[in-house]
């Protein structure tokens, strides 16, 4: 049991630490990060119930539709909702890069519980694959969401458009990720690896842009 908890949480701690320490100016308050992380964890249970109900009743009737609606849209919408109503107007959210930190915290909270449940059900031998694919993908979806929410808060124009992108870019990417996993293709790994590389490239670029924006903000304030 202890080994599963360690393997399930180790990649979460590694990714969160990297995102947190990558900020070039003042670090964010840990209590708010922890709070958003916990909210992400709590989200798992109602969403699992909704997903179970839909799948049991066969409402959507297609693995592709389930990937898009039950995984991509449902999960990312509730993460976005929590971010907007808990973090967006908080005083600690005072730089563009902060959006990335809180977006990743919410997503990794969700990924932590999901990962623990999966490893308890299927075995510790899946830990490395889970770390490389589902856990890191959740973090990257949260990173992209937080990037656009940060842009919405600290950019004078196109605020609504940025909030739209903050929701639907992660929804689209998450849907593609789940469609690949649920496709049943024997060679799915050869599609997933390039997709994950692309996600990481996008994520790293967003980190650099957000850090540049906060430097500009400090100089101009």
UniProtKB/TrEMBL annotation:
Broadest EC class assigned to this enzyme: hydrolase
Predominant location category: membrane
Compartments where located: Cell membrane
Keywords: Cell membrane, Hydrolase, Membrane, Protease, Transmembrane, Transmembrane helix
Molecular function as annotated in GO: peptidase activity
UniProt keyword Oxidoreductase, yes or no: no
Pfam families in the record: PrsW-protease (PF13367)
GO BP annotations listed: proteolysis
Function, as annotated: Involved in the degradation of specific anti-sigma factors.
Protein name, as recorded: Protease PrsW
